[in-house]
Design brief:
The structure is a single chain. The protein has helices spanning 54-62, 70-74, 113-124, 169-179, and strands spanning 8-11, 16-22, 29-30, 46-51, 67-69, 76-82, 87-91, 129-133, 143-149, 152-153, 161-165, 182-184. The protein has 187 residues and is of the alpha+beta class. The chain has one domain (8-184). The strands form four sheets. The protein has a five-stranded mixed sheet with strand order 1-7-8-9-4. Strands 2-6-11 form a three-stranded antiparallel sheet.
Length: 187
């Protein structure tokens, strides 16, 4: 598949994106082992997964695990970052992607082989990442961003401005109210 003229969107350098990660890490991990939907397997790079909204980051991590112990939340942190530079993303949320044979199933299929093959092609075409619908949002109103970078753990990119801390209570409240998550205190 050639991605010449594939729909694109620029993630502005001042736009914050969000990731929930284990609190004992920095959150900067670029997966290349095939465990992530848009891992560019075999391309010498990896993908670090973010969302445009903190609630999207929540859904990406907790998915259908609707009952969570509070200790699980305490072991996680929310990373919010503005990259400080624009990044050109292949935009799977554009209706024009259909011209390339792309449907919403690319971001939702439990088999990651097609989405990983697309990631390799997007990387080869010079995209810095992929914008997609967050799979576990039935309303399809939350957007994910898979950024490409050197595989493995990474330092925060030069020029980026980030803050990482405990998952805020207002995000927990949004997850409860919009999706029905329940948090159970430690016995």
């Amino acid at each position: 598949m050639t991605l010449r003229r594939f729909p694109q969107r620029t993630l502005r350098g001042d736009r914050q994106i969000h990731r929930i990660h284990r609190a004992d890490t920095t959150g900067w991990w670029f997966s290349a082992d095939g465990s992530g939907r848009f891992d560019p397997v075999g391309a010498g790079k990896g993908a670090c997964y973010f969302a445009e909204d903190p609630l999207g980051a929540w859904i990406e991590v907790f998915r259908r695990q609707m009952l969570l112990r509070d200790v699980v939340l305490n072991d996680r942190a929310l990373l919010s970052v503005a990259l400080g530079r624009g990044v050109r993303l292949a935009d799977l949320t554009s209706r024009r992607a259909l011209q390339f044979g792309i449907t919403a199933s690319l971001g939702a299929d439990p088999d990651y082989s097609s989405s990983q093959a697309f990631a390799v092609e997007a990387l080869r075409a010079g995209f810095g990442g992929i914008r997609y619908f967050v799979r576990h949002d039935p309303a399809q109103k939350l957007f994910g961003v898979a950024l490409f970078g050197e595989a493995g753990p990474s330092a925060e990119p030069a020029g980026a401005a980030s803050v990482s801390g405990a998952i805020p209570e207002d995000l927990v409240d949004q997850a409860r109210g919009r999706f029905g998550y329940r948090i159970v205190p430690r016995p």
